[in-house]
Amino acid sequence: MSATGRRVEGVFDPWDPAFVADPYPAFAELRALGRVHYYEPSNQWLVPHHADVAALLRDRRLGRTYTHRFTHEDFGRTAPPPEHEPFHVLNDHGMLDLEPPDHTRIRRLVSKAFTPKTVGQLRPYVHQLASELVADLVAAGGGDLLTDVAEPLPVAVIAEMLGVPESERAPLRPWSADICGMYELNPSEETAAKAVRASVEFTEYLRELIAARRKEPGDDLISGLIAAHDEGDRLTEQEMISTCVLLLNAGHEATVNATVNGWLALFRHPDQLAALRADRSLVPTAVEELMRYDTPLQLFERWVLEDIEIDGTTIPRGSEIAMLFGSANHDPAVFSDPETLDLSRRDNPHISFSAGIHYCIGAPLARIELAASMTALLDQAPGLRLAATPERRPNFVMRGLKELRVAV
Fold this sequence. Notes:
single chain, alpha+beta, CATH 1.10.630.10, 3-stranded antiparallel sheet, disordered N terminus
């Protein structure tokens, strides 16, 4: 165990609203205390430095799963409760929670449908939709930036890609929110029950949609996934369902939180907001800097498949590592003046989209969406301002706001 273990429990507290509101001072303390710390409440090893996180994301001695090599018993872990099975069947067949060779096969097949050309063709649709959503916000004199712009844009875009009819999109966001609750640290049984129910309902819906596309293929991503094959390999139906859920969840949860976290940061740094309003060429670097400055995904977990050593501390097989993306993105060893929001920052190797084989396949689409909503708000709402003090959601891993009330 790390020599700093006890002190860490007084520094890192992901269930404390004050910590969730601003974890960055605590991250600085963690980095000063050392390179790895055992955290007993979640039974994880915390890794706060950028160099270590970047290296571990590429280290094949770690995995998002261990069941491709070990049984639960061999790995010293307890199998999930049987009543949680619908969630785990859905989650465990997606790219994010698979390791090679299954991860390699599925990502290769998904990439055949989720191409740069496919994403690029969505650009006019994304910009048009962002413009319409912002126009409605302006016409109303303001509102909740989260529910009026940040949420509906990426949900509609990924639904459009998948081929989900507009009349059937309402449950997508609630299903996603309930499923993603399981990614928080030590989720409650209530959270698990919601995730299981959402997993069952989402799976049933997608099973019917896939069946319809088999009969009548279209130009959508689901039709592309059905058609994708490579040397005889095809996606199973469960892999298609899990891929669609992953693309929806990952395709909008991070974008929603990045949008509201980013605009809150801009409101709190009026000099940077003024610079952005004066110079639209800053939009691309602004998107990257806001992703770095207040990371939507704060923590990413990996299992230790073989003993590893970090700074003289042995992390044994069967352990779980929690890589602190938010801390890594504020590491002064990599970023000059990391606590300063600098929209013109050029040297910006943030890891908000992860790295290695699990690098976010939807990163190009997320960048298009973030730039589109930012540009529309700058163009149509030049006087956009906070209308109320925002309140954080209690979540730490996927960190965002309950709402962001704005006036125009």
